Amino acid sequence: MKGKWKNKQIKKIAADVLFLLLACCVGAFATVGVMLPNGLTIGGLTGIVRIVQTYIPVDFSLLYYGGSLLILIISAVFLGLKEVRKILFLTILYPAVLFVFETLDVQLLEESDVLLAAIFCGVFSGIASGLAFWRGYVFGGTDAIAKILRKKLFPQYSLSKLLLAIDGIVIILSAFVFGRNIALYALITQVIISRMADMVIYGFEMKIVKLEMITVQAEAISQYIMEDIGRGVSSTEIRGEYTKHAHRQLNVMCSPRESILIKRKAAELDPKALITVVPVETVWGTGEGFTDIEKEQ
């Protein structure tokens, strides 16, 4: 039994490394082969490094490495080593892959086309983010900054809102450095990244999912959903007909990205939790991300 578990873990680690390497290659190509040659930018740490690079003429990959390591250290101080483990691997791997792609000097477009570059930068970056997130990892960057801000300054706001605000600030700052047109192209890219990441994780045409979970850690997971994710959660008492034991089932409506975060937390607190994710075509309500029922009249 122990040998089977060990083999399963080895296979999982091997799959993680393979998909994360693919994610890094796709993301590096989006940055080095599409974004930089066309003078574009985006939000997040990549956008911050683009701004810094205009004042410090150093290779993009080296600046990105410095920014990633700085965020890693800050995360260790404010969030603890547990959070650092989630971003450590990509913090080391992704800048290294960026450096290789910079050396190769690859480009997607034969001639400069800013609109096409903005679209395909978003497509490739979204695929990279989706692959990493699907495997339970994140690129060290503004995600960590958003978590720190929420923990220390803005506990009343959800992580998605803080992340949106940070990306918005970076794009606004880029307007002063690169011009308003480039900032607007960055906005297009950012929207495409978000959509593509969701498509990679859950497929097309899925904006909201219903997550049902049977767990012995209902209280802790409910608190995480409400306080960290910023979603409402309900629970029902159910009974297994085979064992006749009573259990609590948690029910939550959320985005595909948020469901991955909840799944990771559940796996951490209760590895034996039973989780079902069901696609939802439309949700009417007043909650964040839902369609206002009055507007559908």
From TrEMBL:
Protein's UniProt keywords contain Transmembrane: yes
Residues of the DUF2179 domain: 231-285
Phosphoprotein found in the keyword field: no
Keywords, alphabetical: Cell membrane, Membrane, Transmembrane, Transmembrane helix
Membrane topology term: Multi-pass membrane protein
Transmembrane segments: 62-81, 88-109, 115-138, 159-178, 184-204
Gene Ontology CC entries for this record: plasma membrane
Domain of life: Bacteria
Cellular localization per UniProt: Cell membrane
Protein name per the record: YitT family protein
Species for this entry: Zhenpiania hominis
Lineage, top ranks: Bacteria, Bacillati, Bacillota, Clostridia, Peptostreptococcales
